[in-house]
Specification:
Elements (H helix, E strand, L loop, with lengths): L12 E5 L4 H11 L3 E6 L19 E5 L7 H10 L3 E4 L5 H5 L3 H7 L4 E6 L14 H7 L19 H26 L3 E6 H8 L1 H8 L19 E5 L5 E5 L3 H11 L14 H12 L4 H8 L6 E3 L10 H6 L2 E4 L2 E4 L23 H7 L11
Length: about 375
């Protein structure tokens, strides 16, 4: 596998202290964009029970095995840090310091280093040292409470909203901003990326709408949370679902025309009749299969799309044409995103197996103590 890619981050060196969830995904994104990411795995593994050969979040990376609790483990990490631009860790607050690889030790070796910290609760606050997972973080920010049927419990959106949107992506934004600052000033800094902070930040528009009186603080009562009959999902005759997002008048007009309820649909702005409108839309969708409705709305401005499963998504004609998914090493997976005109990113290597690249990293990063090279 190539040491670095041709993406916009080619030449950037990243040390990732192995963890689970948002840290590895953030490091994968940096690797996808061309950075040389070296993941420091612990002997014996750890985290979720995922076969390393299928852990796509470790693609485009290299891996070395180091025991941070051994006598020389921290020193070897600091050797890497001395030659790196970025470090990413996802321990609980204080753990990296106890292991001897905290910001003070790292910046003593490399003052330009961007030290990225990924946690759920953040580095400080009453819950900073408490355990947690995505669902708890998005719960206290108000994000989870927004999602789902008003007559049922909140719907769990996998771990996309907290771990990856509120966590990984904000860590990457912070790291890239701090990297720009370091290259301008010669001074590194610590990036404290907390999932609660990022997730709360994602709700900015909703808070503005609520302050203006345009959003009710309850599920299923608003324009974008399923409360609106022309922004939601509907079951088809074969048990599939169609997603409708016909918010603007011109899109709504096309929607009810193609759906075949133009003459019976009540005025879209009459909120008192939204229940009636929803029933009319639902009844009509139940008369055909998902594929039949897909063909009706395909290529139109009605803003309607089939709800596909993870396995179905790569075959969608538009996604297939764009290459949104790619096959590498026998695994169908999302391709790197976003796209760049001058420095395209690519999947260059499959999941890095723990310790598989210790020798090459020792050579390329000039850290001979990492691996006893033969004379």
């Amino acid at each position: 596998m190539a040491v670095t890619g041709n993406g916009p981050l080619a030449g950037v060196r990243v040390v990732e202290l192995a963890g689970i969830g948002p840290g590895p995904f953030a490091a994968m994104l940096l690797a996808d964009l061309g950075a040389d990411v070296v993941r420091v795995d612990r002997p014996g593994g750890g985290g979720l029970a995922v076969d390393p050969a299928y852990d796509i979040t470790n693609r485009n990376k290299r891996s070395v095995l180091l025991d941070l609790k051994s006598d020389d483990g921290p020193a070897r990490v600091l050797d890497l840090v001395q030659r790196a631009d970025v470090l990413i860790e996802g321990f609980r607050p204080g753990v990296a310091e106890r292991l001897g690889v905290g910001p003070v030790e790292c910046h003593a070796r490399n003052p330009r280093l961007v030290y990225g910290r990924m946690t759920g609760w953040g580095q400080e606050g009453p819950l900073a040292h408490s355990a947690g997972h995505d669902i708890a973080y998005i719960a206290v920010t108000g994000a989870l409470g927004m999602i789902g049927d008003p007559d049922g419990p909140p719907a769990v959106p996998a771990n996309l909203v907290g771990d990856y949107a509120g966590g990984s992506l904000y860590l990457v934004i912070g790291v890239l901003a701090a990297l720009q600052h370091a290259r301008t000033t010669g001074t590194g800094q610590v990036v404290d990326a907390a999932i609660v902070d990022g997730t709360a930040h994602l709700t900015s528009m909703i808070h503005g709408m609520m302050a203006a009186g345009g959003w009710q603080d309850r599920r299923g009562a608003n324009l974008l949370d399923g409360g609106c009959p022309f922004y939601g999902t509907y079951e088809t005759s074969d048990g599939g679902y169609m997603a409708v997002g016909a918010l603007e008048q011109q899109f709504y007009d096309a929607f009810i025309d193609l759906l075949g309820i133009k003459d019976q649909a009540p005025a879209r702005k009459d909120l008192a009749r939204w229940g009636e409108l929803r029933e009319a839309v639902a009844a009509r969708f139940r008369t055909r299969t998902r594929q039949e409705w897909t063909e009706v709305f395909d290529g139109t401005d009605a803003c309607v799309a089939p709800v596909l499963s993870l396995r179905e998504a790569p075959a969608h004609p538009h996604l297939a044409a764009r290459g949104t998914f790619t096959d590498f090493g026998g695994i169908t997976q999302p391709a790197p995103a976003p796209r760049f005109s001058a420095t395209p990113a690519a999947v260059r290597g499959g999941p890095a197996l723990p310790g598989a690249h210790t020798e090459s990293v020792a050579r390329d990063w000039d850290v001979p103590a990492l691996y006893p090279l033969e004379d």
